Arylsulfotransferase (ASST) (Gimesia alba), 325 residues
Amino acid sequence: MKFHNSLWITLLACVLLQGGTVAGAETPNQTAGHRLLIGYGEGVMELDEKNDIVWHYQQPDIETVYDAWKLENGNVLFCHRFGVREVNPAKETVWDFNVPHEKGKQEINSCQPLADGKVLILDCGNQKLLEVNRDKQVTLSIDLPDGGKNPHNRYMQARKTPQGTYLISYRDNKVILELNADGKEVWRFKLNENDRPFTAIRLANGRTLIPCITSYRIIEVDPDGKITWELDKSDDLGFELLYPVGVQVRKNGNLVVINSDYHHRKGMNNDVQAFEITRDKKILWTLTKADLEKNGKTSVVERGTKMPSHHLLSIQVLGEPEGLK
């Protein structure tokens, strides 16, 4: 037995010296070779496989980037408080759709690139869901059921489903509505009183994934409204689950989640800003504040506080299907 123990220790030492890991001893401290596009409080950034910021877009007229997408042509499409913009890698604007700069009256919380080249836009100020073509012509306009007095709190995101319907996340009303192209309700899911939905993603199995930002949980519900999967603060992740906003479902079923401290301007103790989790709730990797700041990287700085911004809102794993974001 002593011989076997000595042999095991020798083999383990060899593995460690060669930079390897022992099976079952993974540590979730890197993005495992993934490139990420992230929208945050005042801009958009792309991270490479080492978490280095390799592209960063920030302009004085941009704030609250809830939605950001890297397109097949290499351009980046994103929404901000007063519009939707597409820029090329040289940061030149190639498409721009704007609403009047009237804070408290106008707000764009969501955009989605569609297969036909159009863009789905959630106009919170006018309570309309729009499909807009590349000539900036509105080809479809749906009047939304009333979301309340405050444009900022009416809705969070909207998504067109593979079935051609539209999922609308009502923030203050605490409900997910599914509408058809005529604006008729075809499905609804009422959330708990302490929930505020950020988005709703229609999965291939017909269920709907809903991250809830004030109850700090993510739920999956079937067409009958039954919760079939849930991640919440009672789960032992090794860090605090906080304000889960941007979510993308990978083709293997894993979830990539923003763990934002956006509504905590002075910063929080949560170091983990994003993570990937399996359906059996195993954390595969994390993105931390330290990842965004170390080794003299290009800093992402808030204009107001001049502090590093960790107010992440949208995430996309490049190379994964866009339809599950």
In short: Residues 1-27 have pLDDT under 50 and may be disordered.
